[in-house]
Structures are given as C-alpha cells and as structure tokens.
Design a protein that fits this description.
The chain has helices at 3-10, 57-69, 82-89; strands spanning 25-33, 36-44, 51-54. It has 91 residues and is of the alpha+beta class. It has a domain at 1-9 and 21-65. The chain has a 3-stranded antiparallel sheet with strand order 1-2-3. The longest helix has 13 residues, at 57-69. The chain starts with a helix and ends with a helix.
C-alpha cells in the first residue's frame, strides 16, 4: 500500500465525498547529478511518518496525477473560487 492510500484511510473527510481532503508534507530539494542540477521530492504522511521519495518532479507529478484521477476520468477542471483561494492563503 502506498503512502497516499494509507493517508486516505486515516484522513477524516470534510464533506460527503470520499478522499475529499488529504494531508501530506511535500519536500523539494535540488541535487547535482553529472554537473546538472535536478529536483528531488518526497511526500510524507504526518499521521504515520511514512515517506515516499521521487527522483524527479515529473515522477512526483505523475504519481499525484494518477492518485487524484481515480474516479475523475473525463471530468472537466472546475475553476478555483475566490473563497477557496482566501481559505488556502490564510494563516
């Protein structure tokens, strides 16, 4: 079972939709490989401490895209509302 699936099991939904909200810590850093800088990333579940490492941003994006696409095949992207932006930027 991957880290996102474990997070789904432990996350309390904030609405009626399953998997409506998931929490993870994203870390990103650069490392030099053969004199070229490359991004690395990791996702960590704060509930379990489990971490998954990605060798490139492309593999991270592919992983997230695959996990978020479950059940949303063919769904049109819905624009973010101003209220959602305000909620996400408040501290």
């Amino acid at each position: 079972m991957c880290i996102v699936e474990k997070m789904r099991e432990q996350t309390m939904p904030i609405n009626d939709e399953p998997d409506a909200y998931q929490t993870c810590v994203l870390r990103m850093w650069r490392t030099q490989v053969e004199r070229k800088w490359q991004w690395r990333a990791s996702l960590e579940c704060p509930h379990t401490g489990e971490r998954q490492v990605f060798g490139s941003l492309e593999t991270l994006f592919a992983f997230l895209s695959e996990r978020c696409a479950d059940g949303n095949a063919g769904a049109a992207e819905i624009p973010v509302t101003p209220d959602e932006v305000r909620f996400q930027t408040q501290k």
